């Protein structure tokens, strides 16, 4: 309980940190905060143009634009949070060495600013859904429980990586590589059905047990297919996320005692 | 933990790992995984301490004695290797001023950033912001970005935030050298006010004046251990004696091994350089001071290049003693720093004369000072 009390006492710090994160990231550029949304959109445009040429219209399926947007925007949230989160403790070394505050505020505010960005990006998804005639249904409210599951998972991962990064600097490079792989290990730009269970074998299994596959599939159900997510597999991912978060918190608490000395 | 204690330290030791090259990459960690155990540097050794609520305590000790480390341990920036440190009450540490300041934001916005790091909520900051701005004396500049501030303004703002946080326990590390005389005085007044309002203050400082003036108790840390703990006057006195002794030993060792040469300073207060003196004065006062870290140092006076045959009195010079305390402690006797003698100017021809003071160690001149005066 003391975790929550401590965080509650420092809520103003959390708030200013999130604000600084969101406003500060693109400070000085002309488009400013717009870049947070422009980046994934430009990525979508690239895939949207290139992939149908490579694989043909039949393979990419109908409504590929919406398919891409509903995949890339949640993925951007995950990727940015993990990327920025991993180096967050090191980046804040200056104040960690000088002032006491609950250290978990730093990775937490990274994930929170990711959530804020994601929620704003959801407006873009909705605009595209309506604009392309895909439409919206009440199923869209499922986005919130899905977002909670994804945020918990992301926070757990960020807690582990940010703490370990202080001690082993190579983590940042390893993370960059794994994130790159993971993007192709998650059905973001392709359909899972493009793999057949028999021919892809172990690769197929890996992609299906990837929790992000479930999460992104659930978002697509909510935004694009107007269905409820598969609550059973989402529930499993939820449990998995809680376990990761628990382990992450334990590792973080163990390692945080050496932060000021290692940095 | 005892209810009347603000800070409790029990059997506490702290080691730092000594890393010659930081084997921080995965590669070196994998290759050298069985490398022999790293060396440890023992900074604090088995400290036991109670600091009661409402006490104002100074930690003193020479550089590297571990007093700042102890303060960092109290704030929970670092953690003890052995033993425990417990604190009771809202704690603020002023180890570093201006933590979390962002140069592109205005002074007012930065008050919010900085205060939030100290754990204040928006409401609490709103309630204090006028006090903070008033204390900082920044006036209209408060709404300018702080990158436009002078360093003095920056420090004033930072200190104003820190001191207005309203903590029950305040830990301060050698940061009171802020701004001009006027602002420093204000800071000390504020600290006195906090002390009298029953806050617990722990302060690390080298300024023994501050210690005697502000604190009710002094803890002396010597080579990582608690040496003395008690009334300021007594502890400071013992501390000074030890510092003088250590300093002298080290100096002598260095001089013997040839690493360091003896040094000295001489000065002539009167007559001033290129001044005119009254030729009819039969008892004109020549005075100045001389210090040296050599026991064999002697002082010599010359007039127009000829040694003078005079009787010199040694005088008490507290001002010089304080100014050179850091460098000459252990070699100075405050009662014999100054020199003075009277000279009959009527025996001197009118016109320009040169007066010279030399401090010698055997035949080697350590320091000299020469002035010119005109006998009219």
Describe this structure in words.
Chain B: Pfam families: ABC_tran. Chain B: This is ABC transporter ATP-binding protein. Chain B: Belongs to the ABC transporter superfamily. The complex is a heterodimer of chains A (263) and B (376). Chain A has helices at 2-9, 11-24, 35-55, 57-60, 64-86, 88-91, 93-96, 105-131, 143-167, 171-184, 197-200, 202-209, 211-225, 231-256, 259-262. With 263 residues, chain A is an all-alpha fold. Chain A has one domain (12-262). In chain B, helix 3 (107-117) packs across helix 4, helix 3 packs across helix 5 (151-163) and helix 4 (122-136) crosses helix 5. Chain B is α/β, with parallel strands linked by helices and 376 residues long. The termini of chain B are far apart. Chain B folds into two domains: 50-76 and 90-244, Rossmann fold (3-Layer(aba) Sandwich); 264-375, Immunoglobulins (Immunoglobulin-like, Sandwich), CATH 2.60.40. Chain B has helices at residues 26-31, 67-75, 107-117, 122-136, 151-163, 181-196, 208-214, 232-256, 318-323, 325-328; strands at 5-18, 39-52, 56-60, 82-87, 91-94, 169-173, 200-204, 217-222, 225-230, 264-270, 275-277, 284-292, 297-303, 306-307, 313-315, 338-343, 351-361, 364-375.
């Amino acid at each position: 309980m003391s975790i929550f009390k401590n965080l509650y006492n420092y809520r103003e710090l959390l708030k200013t940190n999130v604000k600084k994160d969101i406003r500060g990231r693109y400070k000085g550029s002309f488009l400013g905060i717009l870049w947070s949304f422009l980046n994934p959109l430009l990525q979508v445009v690239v895939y949207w143009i290139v992939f149908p040429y490579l694989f043909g219209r039949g393979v990419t399926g109908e409504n590929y634009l919406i398919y891409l947007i509903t995949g890339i925007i949640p993925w951007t949230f995950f990727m940015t949070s993990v990327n920025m989160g991993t180096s967050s403790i090191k980046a804040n070394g200056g104040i960690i060495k000088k002032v006491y505050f609950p250290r978990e505020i730093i990775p937490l505010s990274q994930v929170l600013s990711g959530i804020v960005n994601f929620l704003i990006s959801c407006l873009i998804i909705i605009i595209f859904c309506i604009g392309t005639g895909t439409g919206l249904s009440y199923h869209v409210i499922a986005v919130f429980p899905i977002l909670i599951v994804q945020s918990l998972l992301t926070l757990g991962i960020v807690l582990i990586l940010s703490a370990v990064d202080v001690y082993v600097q190579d983590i940042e490079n390893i993370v960059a590589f794994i994130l790159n792989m993971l993007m192709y290990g998650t059905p973001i730009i392709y359909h899972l059905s493009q793999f057949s269970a028999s021919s892809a074998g172990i690769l197929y299994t890996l992609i299906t047990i990837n929790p992000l596959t479930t999460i992104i599939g659930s978002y697509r159900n909510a935004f694009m297919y107007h269905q409820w997510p598969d609550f059973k597999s989402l529930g499993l991912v939820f449990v998995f996320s809680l376990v990761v978060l628990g382990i992450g918190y334990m590792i973080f608490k163990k390692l945080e005692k050496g932060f000021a000395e290692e940095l | 933990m005892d209810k009347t204690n603000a800070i409790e330290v029990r059997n506490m030791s702290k080691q730092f790992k000594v890393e010659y090259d930081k084997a921080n990459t995965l590669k070196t960690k994998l290759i050298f995984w069985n490398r022999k155990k790293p060396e440890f540097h023992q900074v604090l050794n088995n400290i036991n301490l109670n600091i009661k609520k409402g006490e104002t305590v100074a930690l003193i000790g020479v550089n590297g004695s571990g007093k700042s480390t102890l303060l960092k341990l109290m704030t929970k920036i670092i953690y003890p290797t052995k033993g425990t440190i417990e604190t009771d009450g809202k704690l603020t540490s002023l180890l570093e001023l201006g933590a979390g300041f962002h140069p592109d934001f205005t002074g007012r916005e930065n008050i919010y950033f900085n205060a939030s790091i100290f754990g204040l909520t928006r409401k609490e900051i709103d309630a204090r912001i006028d006090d903070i701005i008033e204390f900082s004396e920044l006036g209209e500049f408060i709404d300018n970005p702080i990158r436009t501030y002078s360093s003095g303004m920056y420090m004033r703002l930072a200190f104003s935030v820190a001191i207005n946080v309203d903590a029950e326990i305040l830990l301060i590390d050698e940061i009171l050298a802020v701004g001009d005389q006027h602002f420093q005085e204000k800071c000390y007044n504020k600290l006195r006010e906090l002390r009298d309002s029953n806050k617990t203050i722990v302060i690390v400082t080298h300024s023994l004046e501050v210690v005697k003036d502000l604190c009710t108790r002094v803890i002396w840390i010597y080579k990582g251990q608690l040496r003395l703990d008690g009334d300021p006057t007594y502890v400071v006195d013992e501390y000074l004696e030890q510092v003088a002794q250590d300093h002298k030993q080290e100096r002598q060792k260095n001089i013997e091994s040839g690493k360091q040469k003896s040094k000295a300073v001489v000065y002539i207060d009167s007559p001033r350089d290129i001044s005119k003196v009254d030729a009819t004065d039969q008892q004109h006062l020549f005075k100045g001071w001389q210090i040296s870290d050599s026991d064999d140092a002697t002082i010599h006076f010359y007039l127009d290049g000829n040694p003078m045959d005079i009787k010199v009195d040694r005088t008490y010079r507290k001002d010089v003693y304080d100014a050179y305390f850091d460098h000459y402690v252990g070699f100075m006797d405050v009662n014999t720093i100054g020199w003075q003698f009277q000279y009959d100017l009527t025996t001197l021809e009118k016109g320009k004369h040169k007066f010279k003071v030399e401090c010698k160690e055997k035949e080697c001149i350590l320091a000299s000072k020469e002035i010119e005066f005109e006998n009219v």
